[in-house]
Amino acid sequence: MKDLGDIPEMMTEIGRRARAAAETLAFAAPEAKRAALEAAAEALWSARAEVLAANAQDLAHGRDKGLSPAMMDRLALDEDRIAGIRDGLRAVAAQDDPVGRVTEEWDRPSGLHIQRVRTPLGVVGVIYESRPNVTADAGALCLKAGNAVILRGGSESFHSARAIHGALQAGLRAADLPRDAIQLVPTRDRAAVSEMLTMVEYIDVIVPRGGKGLVGLVQREARVPVFAHLEGIVHVYIDKGADADKARALVMNAKTRRTGICGAAECLLVHRDARALGQRIVDDLMAAGVEVRAEGLEGSVPATEADWGCEYLDMKIAAKVVDSIDEAMAHIRRFGSQHTDAIVTEDDAAAAHFFARLDSAILMRNASTQFADGGEFGMGAEIGIATGKLHARGPVGAEQLTSFKYLVTGDGTLRA
User: Fold this and answer.
1) Pseudo-torsion of CA 343, 345, 351, 353, nearest 10°?
2) What letter would DSSP give residue 97?
3) Which of 261 and 120 is assigned the larger pLDDT?
């Protein structure tokens, strides 16, 4: 590796190595990729004391920076969370390999037989902030999909990411796969991010995973294609046909289970005919320590225009009474981020209307928005939740990290 002081030269070398590794991974045996991930899971668990020590350094750095409690929660690891990362690696390892899978095939009158087959994207660049588990999730999913990956974690999780990356490297060594398949940018210098965004010769797609500032920067400056992961401005709409007990439990879980994740509810919308239920929900939230910024309900403080469309990632939520389901949907279209939005109702027609008329990446009925997660969708893990509409949308797992090619077979077939 070149001198870390020369960021462009360093990133170019990382890119070259990633491209070379991607060429090998494109035809790596499924058994080798599975073995690498299983070995990485074992290495991570064996090194959990070292990972916790590294995380303690990051937590101290976060406290010195004045990170909010929600951000500190995102950053923090304990033995249970490390076990969760380990289990995620094992889950990805156990999945069917997407590379080479025939998704469609057909015959033409000309005599051609055509197959559409999944193929790796090549090199994926992942730029993320404080959550150290993304190191393992992104590394595992890219490897499973036959891609090399360049990981650039946030300064807050610098030490934790390095410790987790060490386990991934151990897995690659054990399976005799190129170590350059999963590289971690070894500097906090933001210049490395700027370099990644323009590395069109070496990186095929960028996945930003973080707050509005990071995603905005990537979308403004990237010359490499981007899988956008916008902020999670998540709405829960309480319809007039909602079951009271379900609604109270669902909103409490959606807001308070973990406030710092992108699936946490940030805005509560209540049909006017369910206002009494909405008030009980607001009272529940306030009793749990949530600040409710309300309009049409008695909350902690009155809501302002700035509260609509705000991703708090904290023990705060906006709440508003609406006159109809259509007004609720209009509010979501105006202030949402097309990430995840939910309806609570026993009315099938209302739920169908909500599902048909909104175009968020994830729409839910009578379920906590905290389920907006690739692991909960059966993907083992996720590299992020894409809110754009091209190529990948919603949780991005291994399958979404592939493209496709057409295999065309003839028998001396000539075109007239």
Assistant:
1) -90
2) P
3) 120
Give the per-residue pLDDT at 5: 66
Compute how many other C-beta atoms are within 10 angstroms of the C-beta atom of residue 359.
13
Do the Cβ atoms of 388 and 218 come closer than 8 Å?
A: no
Residue position matching structure tokens 């905005």: 216
User: Do residues 359 and 405 share a domain?
Assistant: no
**Same domain? 327 vs 347:** yes
222 and 239 assigned to the same domain: no
Q: What is the 3-state secondary structure (H, E, C) of 117-141?
A: EEEECCEEEEEECCCCHHHHHHHHH
38: which 2 tokens?
A: 């299983």
The interaxial angle of helices 158-174 and 30-46, nearest 10 deg, is: 130
Q: Is the pLDDT of residue 405 over 80?
A: yes
Q: Which of 64-68, 186-190, 227-231 has the lowest mean pLDDT?
A: 227-231
Nearest Cα to 402, choosing from 182, 207, 119, 124? 119
Decide if 361 contacts 340 (C-beta within 8 A).
yes
Which domain does 400 fall in, by range?
A: 7-227+396-409
Contact 160, 59 (CB under 8 A): no
Number of separate domains in the chain: 2
What Cα–Cα distance (Å) separates residue 27 from each residue in 23, 89, 93, 97, 141? 8, 21, 17, 12, 16
Distance CA 90, CA 37 (A): 7
What does pTM read for this prediction?
0.82
17 and 106 part of one domain: yes
- In a shared domain, residues 196 and 320: no
